[in-house]
Amino acid sequence: MAESKITQREINNIVWKACDTLRPVMGSEQYKDYILTLLFVKYLSDVWKDKVEQYRIKYPDNEEMVQRQLQRERFILPEISNFDYLYQNRSEPNIGEIIDIGLTALEDANRSKLAMVFRSISFNSETVFGQTKQRNAIMKNLLVDFSALDLQPSHLEGNDIIGDSYEFLISKFAGESGKKSGEFYTPSEVSTVLAKLVDPQPGNRICDPTAGSGSLLIKMANEVEGKNYSLYGQENNGSTWALCRMNMFLHEQDSATIEWGDTINNPKLLENDSLMKFHIVVANPPFSLDKWGADTAASDQFNRFHRGVPPKSKGDYAFISHMIETTYEDVGKVGVIVPHGVLFRSSSEGQIRKKLIDENLLEAVIGLPANLFFGTGIPAAILIFNRGKTNNKDVLFIDASREFESGKNQNKLRDSDIEHIVSAYKSFKIATPITTEKGAIVEDKYSYRATIADIIENDYNLNIPRYVDTFEEEEEVDIKATHTNIIELKKQLTEVENQMENYLKELNLI
Known about the structure:
- This protein is α/β, with parallel strands linked by helices.
- It is 44% helix and 11% strand.
- It contains 19 helices and 12 strands.
- The chain has helices spanning 8-18, 28-58, 63-70, 83-88, 95-109, 111-114, 126-129, 132-147, 161-177, 188-198, 215-223, 238-250, 294-297, 316-325, 341-344, 347-358, 415-430, 452-457, 479-506; strands at residues 205-208, 230-235, 257-260, 270-271, 274-275, 280-283, 333-339, 362-367, 380-386, 395-399, 440-443, 447-450.
- The protein has a 10-stranded mixed β-sheet, sandwiched between helices.
- Helix 2 (28-58) runs antiparallel to helix 9.
- It is globular.
- The relative contact order is 0.08.
C-alpha cells in the first residue's frame, strides 16, 4: 500500500492550531514571528533528518563519510539547533533560553544565509511570555504542537508545500493583524498581477525596495522560466526582514540578497558606491508615508529627487523616484502600487508627475478594486513605468475597479480579472501607437489609450475617470407611475394605522 503523503492543508491546520498557544498572551502581529520561526526550524530539522537517512543508506557503516557529506549541504544544522533536541528538552526549567541558544548556533553555522535572522526575537523574554512558570508552559506546549508536524521532504506531497504553507500562514496573519499587515504582506492576487505586467525575463536583476515578507519577489521569480535571475530586496522592519530571509530560503531562493534598513534614508543595495541598477523594480510601498525623510532629500547623495522633493507627509513619490533611479536606462521597468492620490495631487507631487510624463516614462495606470489590501479599504492603482518606451508616448488607462469577487472582510481578484488586466496591457504593448492628437477607447468602460495631448489637456491629472468613462445611464423614471404608486402606498399606510388603533382600543391600551 502506497504511503500517504502529507498535504499543505494538514500542515496549515497543525500550525494554525499551534497559534492558539500564543493567542492569549499576544496579538498576531507579534506571535507570527515566533510561529513562523519554529516552523522554519522544524522544516530545517526534518530536511536534515532526510539527508542523514539518505547518506547512511548510501554509506553504510561509514559515519565519517556521512558527516562529511552533510557539511556540503545548503545549510548546516548544529545538534543544539535541531528541533528534536529542543523537543527532548521541552520540560527543562530554562527551555526558552535553550531555544534561543539553538537559534544563535543556527545563525552562526549559516552566516551567509541566516546571519541576524533570529536576533530580533527571544523565546526567553519575560516581557513577551510572562514569568518563568508561564513561559515554560507556553514553550512546552508550542514544541508539543510542532512535534505533530512531519516535514521531511520525502514525506511531503510536493516540493513547494512548505514554502506555500509559509505563504499561507503569512497571509492568515495579515488577515488578523489589521492595519499593520500592510507592512509585511501584499495579497497574492495583486502580486500575481504585478509580476505578470512587468514580465521578468531570464537574466534579469529584480528588486523590491520595500520587500516585506518577500511574497512579491517570489511571485516575480515564479514568472521566470528556469533559475537564471537574481533577486534583491530591502526591508526596514527587523522582524519582517527576518521573515523575508526565511521565506526566501523556504522557496529555495538562497542567493537572494535581502538587506535590512530604510530604503529612502539608507539604501543598502549599492554597487561601486552608487545605487545598484536593476532590470525590474517592483514594490508595494507604505501608502502616503509621513516623515519619510523630506528634510534631507534635496541633498541626497544619489540625486534621486532631481525631479522634485515630495511633501513631508506623503512619501509616495519618494519611493517612485527611488525605484526609477535604480533601473537600467533604456530597458528598466518599474511596477508600483499606489493610493489614488498619487494620480492627481498637485503641488510638488504634480510637478514630479509632470516631469515623469514629459520624460515618457509612464506606460500604464491601472485602477484596482477597493478593499483588496489588508488594513485599508481604499482602492489602489498600479503604475507601470518603462524606460524603454522609445518613440511610443501613449499611456494605457485601465479601470479594473468593478471586476472582483466580493468577500466578507476583503475583496479578491479572480483569475479571470487578472487575465483581463494582463491581456489588455499586452495588447496595448503590441499595438501601433496612435498618430492623432486624441486617444482612443480600447474597450468600452474598461480601457483607454491616451495620447500625451490627452494628458496635457487634463493638466497632467491621471485620475482614471478622466480617461475611462464608466458612466451607466440610469433607466428613465416614469413620473406618473411613481406618483400613482406613492398615493397607493399612503392609502395602505393609513389603513394599517387605523387597524392598529382599533387593536390598541380593544386591548384598553389607549
